[in-house]
Specification:
It contains 18 helices and 21 strands. The chain starts with a strand and ends with a helix.
Length: 448
């Protein structure tokens, strides 16, 4: 039941901005839980990207519409200078020089930041517990989500919060630069904030109140994923030769855009990304939420819903078992091919790190009817455990997988995919699409 599908390949345009002194685009603090990025770096990168495309002869004058994808959950804080600065961009100055004074907060907390556990608990308590938060916003209050990050900022830096006129997401901020005006937040990215009503697709009054004072006044409107903001800013027309009639669409988060980039347009077609962590996601027509608070529901670019669950103990956990028994991947895969499904009833709970799904706060490797000296049984046990966890913990979606698209580094491991197909009881296809979020954003623009 294993198939291989070759999809569209994309190429990245490398842009080096070492003067921001980041580590892979991130700024690290003395607190290891804090991970930020400088939003001015993204502004400069956008300028450099268009300059490179012009230099390389990309037909910018033929563009009819531009959409984009931004890393989900990250937030950008703008002051009163932002709106006029965006409106009056001039080619005599770089984007960086024109916009460097518009931030009320110099750095942006991004999805990797997990320093808001206290704020999550406060929001959860104010809204009446995990179940109530999930029913209201589609997800429990999570550290990386935007609402708890806003709450922490308002508590720790009240003066800077007071001086914040607009709060944007990474996606809506970049769309604002491209359009030359404050852009709305689309429903897909808005649901990654713990602030949007998952049923009505409007800002949730209770969630706003639980997060920060006067928050509604600082947020832009929400918009459908196909919303046209207006024409692309004259700055990009005059400086780079972009078509003056090109439309700027709202941008979305990387997860909703990946849904489109991978072609997940029907219920039952599921994508599983086998990276450092594993993610399981797909389209949902009728709203169901995970009242345990483990999974997420986002708005989909189609106007439907997107479901997503993330397993922290992914490929690194497999590597731990591989290294524990002094194997290479060929040896590990040979074991998977030559051992029997079900592993004779031997089970493993491979929580080398704290786990998100299910919630495990005390990490540790647990074995059930499994001898730690049995190399073969332990190798099969970890893969079967990971696949069974996906099957069990996706049940709340009420969408039975009919076809699975496997992506990420682990998707090259055919014996692993065979176990996935056996456990999920459906065909698994290995799909080779690089940068699915960027591709999804391009397809969103193409739909215009």
């Amino acid at each position: 039941r294993l198939r291989t599908v070759t999809g569209v390949q994309t190429c990245a345009l490398p842009i080096s901005l070492p003067h921001y002194k980041t580590n892979n685009g991130t700024l690290r603090a003395s607190d290891p839980l804090m991970v930020h990025s400088p939003p001015l770096m993204w502004v400069e990168a956008l300028d450099a990207l268009f300059a490179k495309m012009k230099h390389d002869g990309v037909a910018l004058g033929a563009l009819r519409a531009i959409a984009g994808s931004g890393q989900q959950h990250g937030s950008v804080y703008l002051n009163e200078l932002a709106e006029p600065a965006l409106k009056n961009l001039h080619t005599a100055r770089s984007l960086k020089d024109s916009l460097k004074q518009i931030f009320s907060r110099a750095t942006s907390p991004i999805w990797m930041d997990s320093s808001t556990t206290v704020e999550c608990a406060e929001i959860r308590r104010e809204l009446g517990g995990v179940k109530k938060v999930v029913q209201a916003t589609g997800s429990d209050a999570f550290e990386r989500f935007t609402g708890p990050q806003i709450r922490k900022f308002s508590k720790r830096e009240p003066d800077n919060y007071e001086g914040t006129t607009h709060i944007a997401l990474v996606s809506s901020f970049m769309a604002s630069v491209l359009a030359g005006r404050i852009a709305p937040i689309d429903h897909g990215d808005g649901t990654g904030m713990n602030l949007m009503d998952i049923k009505k697709f409007t800002w949730h009054a209770g969630a706003l109140k639980a997060t920060a004072k006067d928050l509604r006044k600082k947020l832009p409107p929400l918009a459908e994923p196909w919303k046209v903001i207006g024409k692309v800013s004259p700055y990009f027309v005059q400086k780079f030769g972009v078509n003056p009639d090109a439309l700027a669409l709202v941008w979305s988060g990387d997860n909703p855009c990946s849904l489109i980039g991978l072609g997940l347009l029907e219920e039952g077609t599921i994508a599983i990304s086998l990276g450092t962590s594993y993610t399981y996601f797909g389209l949902m027509k009728r709203l169901h939420t995970d009242e345990r608070g483990e999974g997420h529901v986002f708005g989909a670019p189609t106007g439907d819903y997107m479901t997503l669950i993330c397993f922290k103990n992914g490929s690194l956990a497999r590597e731990r078992i591989r290294d524990m028994y002094s194997l290479d991947w060929d040896g590990f895969n040979h074991i998977l091919e030559t051992t029997k499904p079900g592993n004779g009833g031997a089970l493993m709970l491979p929580w080398f790190e704290t786990e998100i799904v299910p919630r495990v706060t005390r990490p540790g490797l647990r074995r059930i009817k499994l001898d730690d000296r049995d190399t073969a049984a332990n190798c099969r046990a970890i893969v079967e455990a990971q696949m069974m966890a996906m099957r069990l913990h996706s049940g709340w979606m009420k969408v039975k997988p009919r076809k699975i698209l496997a992506t990420g580094g682990g998707s090259v491991n055919q014996p692993l995919l065979q176990i996935m197909a056996d456990v999920m009881n459906c065909p698994v296809y290995r799909i080779e699409i690089a940068k699915s979020a960027a591709l999804g954003a391009a397809l969103r623009a193409r739909s215009e």
